[in-house]
Structure formats: structure tokens, C-alpha cells
Amino acid sequence: MPDPFLRPDQLGFLKAMEIEVWRSRDTPVAPPADSREPVGVTPDAADWDSLSAQVSTCTRCRLHETRRQTVFGVGNRNADWMIIGEAPGADEDRQGEPFVGRAGQLLNEMLRAAGFARGDVYIANILKCRPPNNRDPRPDEVAACSAYLGRQIELVAPKLVIAVGRIAAQNLLQRDEPVGRLRGEVHRLDPWGVPVVVTYHPAYLLRSPAQKRKAWADLCLARSITGR
Ligand code: SF4
Question: What is the Cα–Cα distance from 93 to 64, expressed in whole angstroms?
Fold first, then answer.
């Protein structure tokens, strides 16, 4: 997989993702980038502080009864890329931040391979509270929580959404196909028209490392949309 645009630090993360990269001896190595240049009430009208406060005390669905804490979202509120996953797991419920633990570490590596630090993107989930025993979110829970995510999308106004995993992809796109059929093309997120790229959840990639190559292809598709 030759890619003359990769920096040395990105190569390290691709190696961690077990993706082999070959490079011509004639290919110049780009210098490391020092930094990344930033590009970009009620839930439907809330500012960040108000929205965060509403989520932290939300009782709109029964998941508030079993959560340790809500998991609002984290990252650059003016990000080009918004990463949207499913729901908090045990680690996230404990720490109050999305995508922590081993899956979160792999997501960080994937982002670094694509040229982003974790803090460059904005990361959120479909649900802000952990479903017990990590079961799938129920439709009424997704419906109850959707205004929060919708407002986050409006406030970030990303150039691209990456839907991570089946639950995020199906709920964002209102489709029922598996990730394998939704990935590999650019979708549009209603009603904003934001481009959406679907990829595998890092927890799945940890169980199925052979799919990491496809996840890298998804990130390359994403990079091609936002010009990175
Ligand atoms: Fe509220 Fe969403 Fe948590 Fe349900 S999952 S209690 S709607 S914040």
C-alpha cells in the first residue's frame, strides 16, 4: 500500500493497526506536522454549556436509572471530523468519556494514521448513557436521546461524520444493512447533508483484525472528502 503522503508518525500507527505499508526508496518522507490547523435552551437550541447540563441530568429514558454518569462527548467543538459511535460501555460509563479502553486506544491509532490527534476531532455517541450489559440500544432510547446528538452535530458543523459500527451507522442513516454493505460509499446525513463514511467499530476490529485493512480504506475515503 504505497502512500507518499504519509508522515513517519502515521506509519507507526499503521503498523499498530497491522497494516503493511511499503514505500519506494525514491519516495520522499514528509516532515512531521507541528500542529493541525483548525478548519471548521432545549436541545434543539441549546449552546454547549446548556446542552451539556441537560444531558448530565437527563431522565428522558430508563437508562438514567442504571448509568453511573452520562457520557456527553469530547474533543474539538470546531472539528472537521465528527466521530459517532454507539453508546458508552463499562469503561466509558466509569470515566465519563466516549471511546476509552482498548477500543478507544485503537480508535486513537486509526485517527493518528489518518493524520488526526484524538483532540482534533469531536467524538460522541448515539446514546449518552450505558445500556445495561452492553445490550443494543432500543429504538425508544435512541429516539429519546437523538435531540442531543442532533444539536451536537449542529454546533460542531463538521465537514464529515464517521459512523463507527453498526448501531451508529444504521441509526444515523436510517438503514438496516450491516456495516459491510454500508461502508465504501459516501452517504448524506439528513437533514444537514453532511457526508457520512461508515466504518467498523474498533471493538469489532480488535476481535477481527483482518478487517483493519478495510477500516483503513474507509479512513482513506474520509480523507479524500476533507482533503487530508
Ligand atoms: Fe437521557 Fe440519552 Fe441518557 Fe436516555 S440515554 S437518559 S435520553 S441522556
Answer: 11
